[in-house]
Amino acid sequence: MSSSHATDPGHVIDRDALYRRITLRLIPFIFVCYLFNYLDRVNVGFAKLQMLDALNFSETIYGLGAGIFFIGYVLCGLPSNLALNKFGPRRWIALMMIAWGTLSTCLLFVTTPTQFYVLRLFTGAAEAGFFPGIVLYLSQWFPAQRRGRIMALFMSAIPVSGLLGGPFSGWILNHFAAGQGGLAGWQWMFLIQGLPTVALGCMAVFLLSDGFAKAGWLSAGERQAVADDLAADAAGKPKTISDSLVSVLRSRRCVRWPAPVARLRGGC
C-alpha cells in the first residue's frame, strides 16, 4: 500500500505522517497507563514480606488473596469489553483506571483477610477489560499492516514495568520503613503507586477520543484516510466467523481428509 493516497481531488494524505502523528498522540499515554496497570497488578508481591508481618497473615492467606485477583479478571473480561462498546472507550477506559487505582490504593487500609480478598477480587474485575479494551481501541485506529508495530510499542510497557517497578517498589519500602506519617512502607507503596493511576484515569477523559471519527485534532481528510484504510481491511476479511467456517467445511480437502486418516488408524 502506498504511503500517500488522495482522499479528495487535489489533496494527498501522507499515510506515514498521518499514522506517525496518531501514534505520537495515543501511544505514549497508553504506554504509561499500561505500565501502571501492570505495576498495580504485581505490587502486592513486593509488599508481601512487610505486609505479612504487619498483619499476621499466613502464606495461605496471602496466596489466596494474590490468586483471587484472577477470578475477577477472568469473569469480568468479556462484560467489561461489552461495556466499552456500549459507553465508548474514552469513558470506560477512564472508569476502569479510576476504579482499579482506587481499589489498589485502598489495600493500604487492609487489616483482615476478608478485606484483602475482597479488594483483590474487585481489583481484578476492574482491570479485566483494560488490556483487551486497549487492543480493541487501537484496532479502531490502525489498519492491520501497521497494527503489529503499534502493539509491540504498547506491550513493551510490561518489561519496562518489570525493570522499573522492582527498584521503585524496593525504594519505597525501604525509604518509608520507619513509618513516616503513621503508615508502614508497604502502605506507602500502595498509596504512591495507586494514586497516579487514578490521576491517569481522569486524564484519559480529556486525552483519548472515542475513535478517529471523533478526533478533533485530525482534519476531515485525515479522518477519511483512516476510514478508507480500515474499510479496506474489513473488505478483505470474511464477513463472519461462521461464514469462514462454512467455507472450510465445504472444501473438498476437508471432506476427503478423514478417509486417509481412517486408513492410517485401521493399519495401526
Care to describe what's here?
- The protein is mostly helical.
- The chain folds into two domains: about 10-225, MFS general substrate transporter like domains (Growth Hormone, Chain: A); about 240-268, no CATH class.
- Helices cover about 75% and strands about 5% of the residues.
- The chain has 13 helices and two strands; from the N terminus they run E-E-H-H-H-H-H-H-H-H-H-H-H-H-H.
- The chain has helices at about 15-45, 50-55, 60-85, 90-105, 115-125, 130-140, 145-155, 155-175, 185-205, 220-235, 240-250, 250-255, 260-265, and strands spanning about 5-10, 10-15.
- The chain has a two-stranded antiparallel sheet.
- A hairpin with a 2-residue loop joins strand 1 (about 5-10) and strand 2.
- Helix 1 (about 15-45) runs parallel beside helix 4 (about 90-105), helix 3 (about 60-85) packs parallel to helix 5 and helix 4 (about 90-105) packs antiparallel against helix 5 (about 115-125).
- The longest helix is centred in the N-terminal third of the chain and has 32 residues, at about 15-45.
- The radius of gyration is 24 Å and the shape is elongated.
- It starts with a strand and ends with a helix.
- This is Major facilitator superfamily (MFS) profile domain-containing protein.
- It is found in: Membrane.
- Keywords: Membrane, Transmembrane, Transmembrane helix, Transport.
- GO terms for molecular function: transmembrane transporter activity.
- It is a multi-pass membrane protein.
In short:
This protein has 268 residues and is mainly α. The chain has 13 helices and 2 strands. It is found in: Membrane.
